[in-house]
């Protein structure tokens, strides 16, 4: 209950929103006003037949004002699964520091996986020594890759998930992702609980 109170206080005190055009596109995708049936369908990054609450979605007012990222509430030590197959390009697991201050951002343990279409997915806030993979490893979709934690810039234990691709200028660009859920393929929305498919 404490995390919800903290979240509400910060969420509703943050009035500004992003002007990024991707924000509007994501809202239309989430509502089904525009459809994209060509993008890759990701698996939810947790165990089969489990459900987790999405406390913050794309361009959320809490700490995602300029981020097309997702925050799943998770207890420390929850198994994190690869949402897609690929090669591990980054592993940081040496930190035990975290808190609700930007100075902790550098301490966020994370794993980044490169996919076959040159997109990448990142998993943040994993616990100290919580990675089960190394740089260069090939991972399968659904493989356990880490344990969740509360490291880095964070107010409560959760998994921060983000995906990028190279744009036509050679810059990394965040992209929204579709997920397979127990209720079908969806662009996830904040303040909802999502369950994996058995």
Question: Keywords, please?
Answer:
single chain, 198 residues, mainly beta, Glucose Permease (Domain IIA), 9-stranded antiparallel β-sheet, 3-stranded mixed β-sheet, 2 helices, 17 strands, 12% helix
Folded structure, characterized:
The chain is mostly beta strands and 198 residues long. It has a single domain (2-15, 33-195), classed as Distorted Sandwich (Glucose Permease (Domain IIA)). 12% of the residues lie in helices and 38% in strands. It contains two helices and 17 strands. It has helices at 2-13, 21-31; strands at residues 41-43, 51-56, 69-73, 79-81, 86-92, 98-99, 110-114, 120-124, 126-131, 138-139, 144-148, 152-153, 158-166, 172-174, 178-181, 184-187, 192-195. Strands 2, 3, 5, 7, 8, 10, 13, 14 and 17 form a nine-stranded antiparallel β-sheet that branches. The protein has a three-stranded mixed β-sheet with strand order 1-15-16. A hairpin with a 5-residue loop joins strand 7 and strand 8. The longest helix has 12 residues, at 2-13. The protein is globular, with a radius of gyration of 16 Å.
- The number of distinct helices, counting runs of at least 4 residues, comes to 2
Indicate the proportion of strand residues.
35-45%
Structural class: mainly beta
Uncertain runs with pLDDT below 50, 5 residues or more? 4-16
Subunit organisation of the chains: single chain
CATH architectural category: Distorted Sandwich
CATH fold node name: Glucose Permease (Domain IIA)
CATH-level-4 superfamily name: Glucose Permease (Domain IIA)
- The rough form would be described as globular
Radius of gyration: 16 Å
Determine the fraction of residues in helical runs and give it as a percent range.
Answer: 10-25%
By DSSP, the count of extended strands is 17
Outline the biggest β-sheet: 9 strands, antiparallel
Main CATH class: Mainly Beta
Straight-line distance between termini: 29 Å
Mean pLDDT: 86
Order of helices and strands: HHEEEEEEEEEEEEEEEEE
How many distinct folded domains? Answer: 1
């Amino acid at each position: 209950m404490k995390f919800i109170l903290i979240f509400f206080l910060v969420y509703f005190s943050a009035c500004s929103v992003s002007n990024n055009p991707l924000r509007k596109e994501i809202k239309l995708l989430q509502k089904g006003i525009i459809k994209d049936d060509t993008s890759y369908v990701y698996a939810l990054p947790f165990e089969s037949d489990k459900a987790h609450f999405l406390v913050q979605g794309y361009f959320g007012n809490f700490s995602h004002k300029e981020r097309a990222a997702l925050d799943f509430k998770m207890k420390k030590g929850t198994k994190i699964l690869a949402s897609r197959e690929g090669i591990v390009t980054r592993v940081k697991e040496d930190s035990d520091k975290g808190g609700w201050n930007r100075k902790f951002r550098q301490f966020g343990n994370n794993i980044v996986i490169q996919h076959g279409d040159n997109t990448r997915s990142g998993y943040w806030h994993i616990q100290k020594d919580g990675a089960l993979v190394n740089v260069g490893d090939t991972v399968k979709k659904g493989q356990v890759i880490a344990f969740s934690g509360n490291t880095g810039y964070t107010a409560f234990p959760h998994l921060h998930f983000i995906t990028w691709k190279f744009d036509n200028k050679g810059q990394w660009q965040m992209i929204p992702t579709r997920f397979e859920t127990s209720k079908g393929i969806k662009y996830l929305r904040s303040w909802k609980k999502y369950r994996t498919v058995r």
